[in-house]
Amino acid sequence: MEVTDVLRTSQNQLTVGVDSTPKADGAPPPVTDWENYGGITRPMRLVITPGTFIDEAWVRLTRDGRIAATVKLDGPQAAGQDVHVRVAELGLDVTGRTDASGVLNASAAAPKALVRWSPDKPKLYDIAVETRDDHLSDRVGFRTIETKGSEILLNGKPIFLRGISVHEEEFGDNPARTITEAGARALLSEVKTGLHGNFVRLAHYPHSEITTRLADEMGLLVWSEIPVYWLVDFGNPRTLALARGMLADNIRRDRNRASIILWSVANETPITDLRNRFLGQLVDDVKALDDTRLVTAALLTDRKTVDGHPVIGLNDPLADKLDVLAANTYNGWYTDDALDDLPSMTWKATDKPMVFSEFGADALSGFSDPVLKRKFSEEFQKAYYEKTLAMARAIPTLRGMSPWILKDFRAPRRQHPIYQQGWNRKGLVSPTGRRKPAFFVLRAFYEAKEAGK
């Protein structure tokens, strides 16, 4: 928010009012399955710039092997200015002059010495963007992400996304969502080193920039999402405008983060014509704002019985517009299926890469029932993961997963008086970080995937 035009020469007071009241035409809608926090939960800054300043700078590696820069200036002298985008370590200077609207689009061949960013080698370069009056710096990794048939290609090579979903909630008995670097590092370290993961789904809203920058540094691929969730008002123009604004803000903030490979436009939205038009517009927006990444949405599955046998797939018209298909599936938890039946379930093959964006089962940390393996026991959750992963191995186009969820999190709708008490217990670790047995099942699966088995 620019305040230049309302400033006085002295004695200015900045007052910020926050209204966190859920609204029927909002995003997310009033009813969610996580704790909504109000107030100002992230850092704020008052930024002082020259009269004409660097408003945006997006530096990336294109799929045809060039370092491209898009720089937008703001101010009365934005047009016709010389701009330099320098990567000193590579001896690179991408330069040019802004157009009449104050925008520079320029590129240069990537130097042969360039080290591409990846989870195994999360190389970041110091970037300097300079004009006559302003200077902006960032740390940027260079990599490509694309699909080919049913494969996801990172830097031209197939990759399996070994992930987990994460809410923006720290570890602790009474966790908050005022994420610090230490809190974010603890969560991401549990994914990277604990689970041997290379991927994290940041659900169900844009997480703090602290987290996305740490993902760059630590080497974790990221799914970033806006809260178009469940039953938003798909027929309301204000809701669509709000969602489009959120999406644009999210992309513009994080376009320089090499870790982010997937922009997600929705989670578990029921199929209607209004919804299809709403989400179709968001997908078009992603592709217009960022042609270097992939677009997805967490979809509901379609299940039919054929010859007495369940056949599961994605029968969603939005799939035609997505780069990566994503399914939320809870067979054996929210269905009456016996866990032993999961490995033999048939999934329809897809012509695009598919990921399991969610699957999971609740377990209260420390509740053991080795004989009956009742729901909410650690033994049930462990068996659920074993059987679900066996099912996953048989899906030919499955290219990754982000099970639900890393840690138990606050969820006011979850009020079972014994096992939940205001917590969603699908975490693989407790609120304080105690690992449940299912954690080690998923880790072993990822270790095998990492070894190419």
Automatic annotation (TrEMBL):
Chain segments annotated as coiled-coil in the UniProt record: none
Domain Glycoside hydrolase family 2 immunoglobulin-like beta-sandwich: 53-143
Domain Glycoside hydrolase family 2 catalytic intervals: 146-446
BP-aspect Gene Ontology terms: carbohydrate metabolic process; glucuronoside catabolic process
Superkingdom field: Bacteria
Region annotation (Disordered) ranges: 1-31
EC number(s) reported in the record: 3.2.1.31
Keywords: Glycosidase, Hydrolase
Pfam families: Glyco_hydro_2, Glyco_hydro_2_C
UniProt xrefs under InterPro entries: Beta-gal/glucu_dom_sf, Galactose-bd-like_sf, GH, Glyco_hydro_2, Glyco_hydro_2_AS, Glyco_hydro_2_cat, Ig-like_fold, Ig-like_GH2
Presence of the UniProt keyword Hydrolase in the record: yes
MF-aspect GO terms: beta-glucuronidase activity; carbohydrate binding
PROSITE patterns found in the cross-reference section: GLYCOSYL_HYDROL_F2_2
Family membership: Belongs to the glycosyl hydrolase 2 family.
Entry-linked PANTHER family: BETA-GLUCURONIDASE (PTHR10066)
Protein name as annotated: Beta-glucuronidase
